[in-house]
């Protein structure tokens, strides 16, 4: 009699806490049993994967993904839809994503935003998914809907301190934090000071400096550092946990660390673009630099990147997400080139849509670099995002009977030839990758989602099916909680 749907044997299993020679048995989409290597020798299974000693890790959880969004960050709209974005994700080992459901400033409800986003995702995803509500207008109605959001399985939202289309002022941020606190919702904050960005933009324009590379100076480090400190202050005042998204500067990381050392529930995210790119990537011939325009921008030098790596290693950063926010390069309608016209033949930095693709490259790029302990790699790319956003232990872990059987099985040492990444290897609907030419030493050999092999690099590549991915209702965060329970009291 067949006992299991799938067994994975001879793996070196890596979780966020340990590295062990274990075999894994899967039944009914869940991790059924984990035993010492060899322990499943006689098990009857429909299918067996021999990992040949390669690492076996929980599937990647990418908690910062933009798909099928309207123009929010400049003129363009995002290239990938739910089908192409989730396809790209699974081919790079990500089995769960949390995308944004964007509420515009002229809309006062969040529930309509949520149902519209459900409609975009339903039947289209290759991987499991949830949404963060992106609150562009914290109207009374929107705030009153937080409770329903929680009932609908949405336990996080994102707000912006910059961008005309999205920016909230400090009073609105406090409104959001207060209601989020009441409902057990985690607030993600894009922390950049919009006044500094506008002022610097004007200075650059006066000097007729429009090329893509001036995106960097238009978003100076101080804009991020000041806003990060302000966000921390507002969070402390309201005793509400926050996560600062896409942190790029060592000084902002130092503010975050200092707050964490004081015991505050401040969490932080960084992304591969701040580990691998610098301002040199924005400074390329012609319009090429536009490919790396994202906000915050890649910073000055390798030492900035080193500091961000160090922040991942020492726990300042809780998670490593892609911030996949794709715009086609050679697309004058909705892509990077929508900022090019007769007046600005090399584009104008302030009109270039902000964002880079990266959902497929996040895991292989970071693992290939081999700068994090393996357990730390699993922690920041899978387990912590699952814990932070209320998905653990269903996602991000290997808990018998409780975790979905989402796995990445990597190549054993010496089995995969290293290669230089090119965009045509990727599965997104974007005409470039900012990581073109990087040498990769690892790529998932197999990826398993709820017990199904959805990626087999050597036998057909993508095996998963559109529509297999399902919406996952999320719980409150198991990491982010206020310091003090009970109602927030007005300090008098
Ligand atoms: N912020 C994001 O989170 N993504 C893309 C653009 C931005 O500014
Ligand atoms: Zn942002
Ligand atoms: Zn983003």
In short:
The modification N6-carboxylysine is found at residue 158. The protein has 492 residues and is of the alpha/beta class.
What does this structure look like?
This protein is α/β, with parallel strands linked by helices. 28% of the residues lie in helices and 20% in strands. Strands 1, 2, 3, 4, 5, 14, 17, 18 and 19 form a nine-stranded mixed β-sheet that branches. α8 packs parallel to α9 (250-261). Belongs to the metallo-dependent hydrolases superfamily. Hydantoinase/dihydropyrimidinase family.
Structural class: alpha/beta
Radius of gyration: 22 Å
**Annotated CATH homologous superfamily of the domain at 60-375:** Metal-dependent hydrolases
The percentage of residues in β strands lies in 15-25%
CATH architecture type of the domain at 60-375: Alpha-Beta Barrel
Assign a percent range to the helix content.
25-40%
For the largest beta-sheet, the strand count, sense and barrel status come to: 9 strands, mixed
Number of DSSP strand runs: 19
The ligands bound in this entry are: dihydropyrimidine-2,4(1H,3H)-dione, zinc ion
N-C termini distance: 70 Å
CATH C-level category of the domain at 60-375: Alpha Beta
Stated plainly, the CATH topology of the domain at 60-375 is called: TIM Barrel
What is the overall silhouette? Answer: globular
């Amino acid at each position: 009699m067949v006992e299991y749907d799938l067994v994975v044997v001879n793996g070196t299993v890596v979780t966020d806490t340990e590295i062990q020679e274990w075999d894994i048995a899967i039944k009914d989409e869940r991790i059924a049993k984990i035993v010492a290597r060899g322990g499943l020798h006689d098990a009857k299974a429909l299918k067996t994967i021999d990992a040949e000693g390669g690492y076996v890790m929980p599937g990647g959880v990418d908690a910062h993904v933009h798909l099928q969004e309207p123009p929010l960050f400049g003129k363009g709209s995002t290239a990938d839809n739910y089908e192409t974005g989730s396809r790209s994700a699974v081919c790079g080992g990500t089995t769960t994503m949390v995308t944004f459901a964007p509420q515009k400033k002229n809309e006062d409800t969040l529930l309509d935003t949520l149902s519209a986003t459900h409609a975009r995702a339903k039947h289209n995803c290759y991987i499991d998914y949830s949404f963060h509500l992106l609150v562009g207008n914290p109207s009374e109605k929107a705030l009153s809907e937080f409770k329903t959001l929680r009932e609908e399985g949405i336990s996080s939202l994102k707000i912006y301190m910059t961008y005309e289309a999205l920016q909230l002022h400090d009073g609105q941020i406090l409104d959001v934090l207060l209601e989020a606190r009441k409902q057990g919702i985690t607030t993600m904050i894009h922390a950049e000071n919009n006044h500094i960005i506008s002022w610097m933009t004007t200075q650059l324009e006066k000097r007729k400096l429009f090329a893509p590379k001036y995106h960097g100076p238009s978003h100076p480090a101080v804009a991020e550092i000041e806003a990060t400190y302000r966000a921390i202050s507002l969070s402390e005042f309201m005793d509400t946990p926050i996560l600062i998204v896409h942190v790029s500067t060592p000084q902002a990381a130092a503010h975050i660390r200092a707050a964490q050392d004081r015991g505050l529930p401040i969490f932080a995210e960084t992304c591969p673009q701040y580990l691998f790119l610098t301002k040199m990537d924005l400074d390329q011939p012609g319009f090429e630099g536009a490919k790396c325009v994202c906000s915050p921008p890649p910073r000055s030098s390798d030492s900035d990147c080193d500091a961000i790596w160090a922040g991942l290693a020492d726990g300042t950063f809780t998670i490593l997400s892609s911030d996949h926010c794709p715009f086609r390069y050679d697309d004058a309608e909705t892509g990077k080139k929508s900022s090019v016209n007769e007046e600005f033949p090399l584009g104008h930095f302030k009109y270039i849509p902000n964002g880079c693709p990266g959902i497929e490259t996040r895991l292989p790029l970071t693992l290939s670099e081999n700068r994090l302990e393996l357990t730390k790699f699993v922690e920041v790319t899978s387990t912590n995002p699952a814990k932070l956003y209320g998905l653990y232990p269903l996602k991000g872990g290997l808990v018998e009977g409780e975790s979905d059987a989402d796995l990445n099985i990597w190549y054993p040492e010496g089995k995969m030839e290293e290669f230089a990444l090119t965009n045509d290897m990727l599965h997104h609907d974007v005409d470039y990758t900012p990581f073109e030419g990087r040498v990769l030493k690892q790529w998932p050999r197999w990826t398993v989602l709820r017990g199904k092999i959805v990626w087999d690099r050597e036998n057909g590549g993508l095996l998963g099916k559109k529509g297999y991915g399902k919406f996952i209702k999320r719980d409150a965060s198991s990491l982010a909680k206020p310091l003090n329970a009970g109602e927030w009291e007005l300090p008098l």
